[in-house]
Target: Glycerol-3-phosphate dehydrogenase [NAD(P)+]
Amino acid sequence: MDIAVLGAGSWGTALSFVLADNGHRVHLWARRRELAAEINGRRTNERYLPGCTVPENVQAYTDLRETVHGVRHVVLAVPSQTVGEVATRLNGQLEPNAYVLHAVKGIDVKTGRRMSEVILDACPELEPRRLAVLSGPSHAEEVARRLPTTVVVAGFSPEGAEVWQRLLMNLRFRVYTHSDVVGVELGGSLKNIIAIGVGLSDGLGFGDNAKAALMTRGLHEIARLGFRLGAAPLTFAGLAGVGDLIVTCTSRHSRNRRAGLMLAEGRSLDEVLQGMGMVVEGVYTTRAAVELSEKAGVEMPIAKATFAVLFEKENPRRAVEELMGRTPKQEWVADLWQGRRDWSRGGDL
Model:
């Protein structure tokens, strides 16, 4: 089967490996001609996945129309802030009854919308039941090396998720299906904020106690905002929530954690982004999440502290002191996860 993967960065390329291993012919869309030439000629993608060999049944393209022509299954794996532009270009180019999977972990900064909302608005010919989202603990570097990985695919319909479960799943890449699109999208996006905070904490030498607290309290913030925006609270106890949070906050492959480490060294945000050479989704998501939380009336103190460090030149040590010095609270964990309170309004803050 022919499958198109839009985005030849680390994640899009890694997903093309999974699909190629399953016997599919992959059309991998790259914006840059030199990258497409490298993939097709040398079978490498050294900038994004150094040391990996691109399978022979992956063919790179630079023309979007040609990439998706005759293809009924399309994966979108581009940076979050370009999703609207790519989806707009897809409108009118998709095959009838095409299935689309997006694997983008971010929130649109301009509108505060989730990626599925951006895609459906920009590409009205796509029926919601044919759109799904992939998330979960899945660093591209490990997927490309065929290390065991487990993810979740959420769809607006069982069919929309199950088709991708069949196409992607193999002995090294296990896929669960889910029905909570809102929760899976928000879990995969918001955990990047906490990973930046953990990187800052690690860089400042605050230790494992602080890291554990940031991850645990960060998960509560994610769940509170998610609940207010329509997600099921228990979604955040799964792969798209705590699973992705753990790997992003602890892995050496995490760009968001690495960004926090670099900020802790005293580098400016511009220096960090330039030095990274790849998109750090958590930077954009922090801004979007703080705006969303304010509109929704949900307190997110860790996200706000991270925002202050990123955009307001707040000293990281001072930001941690302010978090630790907040008004004493009660941890209503049982009520929170069982949904017995409207805890998104306050309560456990």
